[in-house]
Design brief:
The chain has 11 helices and 10 strands. Helix 4 runs parallel beside helix 7.
């Protein structure tokens, strides 16, 4: 198995007590495939992905246990120096809200160049690589736009820049954490199509983190549904979307807007029945 996660637990410790954010989950990701981790806000999706490369606060504020291996290499046993070589080069991230992830004081080209210089010392013409990456992610006139600052770009363009920064490291796994948040449906579709295209061209594995089942169809190979820190259902995407077994999965799928449904409001998840 390419990426294998077993019995992952994450807890946050404060004066108010212990918050178990992730409660012993297991999942696998095959090379060149996409795993969608689906669940509402607060279910533990982002915490799960950040735990893989030790992006969470150190102990005693946060405790992580379990096993995570990449090609048989234990990620949790790596030193801080070794983990820095994994971040970006092996596992790269596209975080939510590109407007807050990009540094407003530097041009987007400089921010992409920084990733190239750190992780790909073999590149001799960094600026040409920056322009090439912006072209790959579908930004028109890339040489000119590379000199722009983030505030000069739309939300969709900023998200494309974030994807370019992630691709600059040539990662084997791309973690896309709510990559279409705050984007309108047209741009949302463009970003998802772009990720699909890049996955095929680069043979890259993707972990797609989302609360929206609507963007999972025809993109994810497998789905893991998270509810309050636990994976309640997992399996091939086609099977789960066509025949969900867990009541929470069924509730989330019912919330997908459908053309012609003529509903006055979307269904509401009945948490009392789920806990019962």
């Amino acid at each position: 198995m390419f990426l294998d996660v077993n019995d992952l637990k994450v807890s946050f410790h404060s004066r108010d007590g212990v918050n178990e954010a992730v409660k012993g989950i297991s999942f696998q990701l095959d090379e060149g495939k996409t795993l969608a981790i689906v669940g509402e806000s607060g279910s533990g999706k982002s915490v799960t992905s950040m735990a893989l490369t030790k992006l969470l606060p150190p102990e005693p504020l946060c405790r992580v246990s379990g096993k995570a291996t990449l090609d048989g290499k234990s990620l949790f046993d790596l030193s801080a120096k070794e983990m820095r070589s994994v971040r970006g080069k092996e596992i790269a991230y596209i975080f939510q809200e590109p407007g807050t992830s990009l540094n407003p004081y530097y041009t987007v080209g400089n921010q992409i160049a920084e990733a190239i210089k750190y992780h790909r010392t073999d590149v001799t013409d960094v600026w040409s690589e920056v322009v090439s990456l912006l072209d790959q992610v579908g930004i028109r006139d890339p040489e000119k736009r590379a000199k722009d600052y983030p505030h000069q770009m739309s939300g969709g363009m900023k998200q494309r820049v974030m994807i370019a920064i992630a691709l600059a490291c040539r990662p084997r796994i791309l973690v896309a954490d709510e990559p279409t948040t705050a984007l309108d449906v047209t741009i949302e579709a463009q970003i998802i199509d772009l990720l699909k295209d890049l996955r095929t061209k680069l043979n890259m594995s993707i972990i797609l983190i989302t609360h929206n089942f609507g963007i999972v169809d025809e993109f994810a190979d497998d789905i893991a549904v998270m509810f309050r820190g636990e994976i309640v259902e997992t399996g091939p995407a086609e099977s789960i979307l066509a025949n969900p077994q867990h009541s929470y999965t069924k509730a989330l799928i019912k919330c997908i807007p459908k053309m012609g449904a003529n509903l006055k409001r979307l269904p509401v998840v009945d948490y009392a029945s789920l806990e019962g």
